Amino acid sequence: MVTQDDIASINEVKRFLTAIIRGSITDVLSWTTDGLVFTKSSEEMDPDTVLLIKRVKVTKRTSTRGDWTETRTVVELHDALKAAELMGQALGMFKTNIDATAHPAIPVNYEDWRKRLGLDPE
Fold it and tell me: From residue 38, how far is each of 23, 29, 41, 51, 58 by CA, in Å?
């Protein structure tokens, strides 16, 4: 059975979405002008930065001769645009009230307009 303690509070959801919206790739990675990329250690990250991370995948390869080893780290962040959309919806920022009956159709005299445009001789 699901209890209130099992469900995230509104403030927890807002904190999570805000961390994703305000976060940056440079909170998780750094790179040099030579193109070397470094992943920051989890000890260097504050709790809100950790919320940015959706997935981390580490793969290791060793040559068949055993003379080299390669480690690849892929860091996937949560989608900031989606987080902003969800936050905006929760805050009611994107409400649109379109009422088709609020603006009745304006009757148009097509024959008059055709004459004005020179499509029909008078």
Answer: 17, 6, 9, 19, 13
Query: Does residue 34 sit within a domain?
Result: yes
State pTM to two decimals: 0.64
> Is 19 within a domain?
yes
Which of these, 79, 75, 94, 91, lies nearest to 20 by C-alpha position? 79
Domain range enclosing 15? 4-95
For residue 53, being part of any structural domain is answered with: yes
Question: Which residue has tokens 């080893």?
Answer: 69
Cα–Cα distance, 17 to 52 (Å, whole number): 9
Please give the pLDDT value at position 16.
93
The secondary element (H helix, E strand) that includes residue 77 is: strand 69-77
Cβ–Cβ < 8 Å for 76, 19: no
| Rounded Cα distance, 48 and 23, in Å | 8
Question: How many domains, in total, are found in the chain?
Answer: 1
pLDDT > 90? residue 81: yes
Cα angle 78, 80, 81; round to 5: 130
